[in-house]
Every structure is written in structure tokens, then in C-alpha cells.
Amino acid sequence: MVGGEAVNEARRAAQRALDEDLAGYGDLAGRALEGDGRARIIAREAGVLSGTAAVREAARLVDERLAVTFLLRDGDRFGPADTLGGISGPLAGLLALERTALNFLGRLSGIATMTAAFVAETSGTRARIAATRKTTPGLRTLEKQAVVHGGGLPHRFGLFDAAMIKDNHIRAAGSVCAAVAAVRERIGHVHAIEVEADTLAQVQEALDCSVGVILLDNMGLQHVREAVLLAGGRATIEVSGGVRLEHVRPLAEAGVDVISAG
Q: CATH number of the domain that 190 lies in?
């Protein structure tokens, strides 16, 4: 999602956040203050910036007289105590905006920063870092954008743009290939199918029914290595489930194509 639609989504997220915080009544303390003011946005620690669109849209919604300036762009790195930008305008508006703006910047820059740390662990390998659908309700677009700002892949956005056959689908259908056949009968040829495999036997079955993407779910490192060898380049191999930063390098060196995390 890019351009105008991305801005629209940032505006919708900002409106929901302000509705929670101001509830139609406004800032009971801040509105007692008159005059203009100026605020600086200063980083407490190093990171990767994300969330500037949401801050700008929140400022417009609070008071169109608020002027927001960022010295960096989304995806840029910053250091501790760096000034990221500033906001100026009516004091009442500044104070009403403060927490919402910082919530967006903190949450989204945190995701971008963690993503960048994951990406750094894949250096020299073919593995890419991707997001899952384990996002904050109502913030999926912004959080997946933050992953991209950190150098990762957004993966599928939702249930509608790619078919992932998971353990419950397999149980309901009776087998991996039965589930794949049922899904193939009902989706268009342009939609990808990915199968989640818990065992090496399921990996083999997915390969037997010509699945192009196989997700290794919560597999140990040795089983991941065996699955990569078993696939032999016939399918894209993704690994997910309980992936922490310290797991990324060994998984990347095992030869997987994608490492996904929430």
C-alpha cells in the first residue's frame, strides 16, 4: 500500500487513536493553556524511524495549525539523543497530540528497529525477513509498513491475498494433498498457495503435490536443515514459530529462503 491510500490509512489510525484519548471532550488540562509553543522529538536510544505519516495526520486532526517537521525519513537510522523533528503551534493542540504522536512513533519505530536487527543477522545468506499476520488489530497496514522500513518483507497482508494451508485445514481435509486440491479448485490461478508443515513427512507430501511455498512451523534447527535438503530447491522454504533474534543467524545459515516473525 503506497501513496494516497497509505496516507488515508494513517489518517484512519490516527482518528481511532484520538477518539480513544480525547473522546470528543478534548484535553481537559491542556485546553486551559493559551498561546503557541514548540516541541522537539528526541530519541532516547538508537533505532530506525517509522510512523511519520501517522504523526502528521494526527496533528492535522487535532489542530490544522500544528506544523510537523521531521529531519529524517521513514527507514532512516538515528542515534540516542538525536533530534528527529519538531512540532509547533497552539499549546493546547501540542499537548493534546503529544501522547498519540509518541505512541505511534514508539510502536512503529520499535518494529522497524527490531526488523532491522533481524535483517542484519541474515547478512551473507539468501534468507529474507518477513512479517506475519500477528499484528495489532487496526494497525496492520502501519505495522507492515514499519517492517518494510526496517528492511523486511510485508508477507501476505491478510487471508484474501494468498492461501496458507495450516494445520487446522489439513486436519479438516484429511491430508496435505487433499487440502491443497480443495483450495486449488476454488482460487484463481494468480493466487499463491503455501502449506504449513509440522513434520518432514508433511514437507514431503507438500512437495509431492507441487506446492511452491512450504512453511516449517516450530521445527528444530536440525529438522529445518533436513527440510531444506529434502526440498532441494523445488519450493521456497519459510520458517516461522517462536523465532527470536538469536535464532535468526542459524536459521539463515541452514539455507531457508524466508524467516517470518510476528
A: 3.20.20.70
